Amino acid sequence: MTPVGETTPVAGMIASHTRVVADFPKPGVVFKDLTPLFADGPAMTAVVDALVPVVSGADLLAGIDSRGFLVAAAVAGRLCTGVLAIRKGGKLPPPVYSVEYDLEYGSATLEIPAEGVELRGRNVVVIDDVLATGGTLSAAARLLQRAGAHVTAAAVVIELAALGGRRAVAPLRVLSLSTA
Fold first, then answer.
1. pTM of the full predicted structure?
2. Where, subcellularly, is it found (predicted)?
3. Using CB atoms within 10 A as the burial measure, which of 30, 47, 91, 98 is most buried?
4. Number of domains in the chain
């Protein structure tokens, strides 16, 4: 896993395709928008190529709502592995496992199905676009563990190292393709 301060070969491509939006979703927050990265075929392919060797061996990939879905699904397709969408609260039919958590700018709920997908004993890697304070990633890992999964690692496209998210999710192993 890439330690803080080190970057992967795709880091420059990620940086050049990241739109920085000041004061979104609230004043003082600097939002890292990866929409341009996801819309560029070669850039998205480079991200997937960088993640495939890191997450191979997982029984299931879990993408966090909503940009994590895009990355997890692309990587899962390459590996012929299943993908689970970790949804924002209220988006799945019951029954669900849910967890409430704090964000850097509010609070939220994440959910996964309590029926229909057997998670007990499966090795799962969680994928998201950005690791900031670690609240969302930590909540996702707790949610999967509550359902009986073994969360082996997490992978993100960008890590905002100054916000301390890696410490917040420790001891979970985290791969970040780039740091900002």
1. 0.93
2. Cytoplasm
3. 47
4. 1
Q: Are 36 and 17 in contact (CB under 8 A)?
A: yes
Query: With 70 as the cut, is the pLDDT of residue 113 above it?
Result: yes
The catalytic residue positions are 67, 104
Contact of 114 with 96, CB cutoff 8 Å: yes
| Residues with Cβ within 8 Å of residue 52, at least 6 apart in sequence | 75, 78, 79
What pLDDT score was predicted for residue 104?
66
C-alpha dist (Å) from residue 171 to 33, 62, 148: 27, 18, 18
The reply to whether 12 falls in a domain is no
**From the CA atom positions of the chain, what is the Rg in Å?**
15
What does the angle CA 10 – CA 13 – CA 16 come to, to the nearest 5 degrees?
Answer: 150
Is position 18 within any domain?
A: no
d(CA 110, CA 101): 8
Angle 68-106-168 from CA coordinates, rounded to 5°? 60
| b/e 79-106 (16+ beta carbons within 10 angstroms → b) | bebebbbbbeeeebeeebbbbebeebee
- Is residue 5 over pLDDT 50? no
* Domain hosting residue 81, numbered range: 57-179
Tell me, what CATH number does 81's domain have? 3.40.50.2020
